[in-house]
Amino acid sequence: MKITKEYIAGFLDGEGYVGLEKKKDNRIKRGYSIRFRIELSNKNKTLLEEIRKRYGGRLWLKSNKEDCWQLTFGNRKDCIKLLEDILPYLLIKKAKSKKLLEYLKRTNSLIGRGKMLTDKQIKYFSNGITKNNN
Question: For the whole model, what pTM was predicted?
Fold first, then answer.
């Protein structure tokens, strides 16, 4: 099965989720952590497996829906590769995906250096791509 970048972009636009989530976390000084995620859901497991072979992610059967599979991307490297490849072809989720890609690249440069985003930067990245704005 040959799946194009354009097809994956259309699939994400129609059946996908792109977002950031703030999670309460008392272990962190500011009291919360940020979690990024890209999701694709479909009953066609073979289709999702093909996408996973190319971009990584975790494929699992959703327990609350019969025969519905979900491919979840929570790995920074996988998300960056996926977004860089399909961003030019996105229509509906283009702005959210562009902002998420910017967030991933910006925070990638901070990893291992003991630095964090400021509250102002988090607000900038969260605006428009938080969980409640699917």
Answer: 0.82
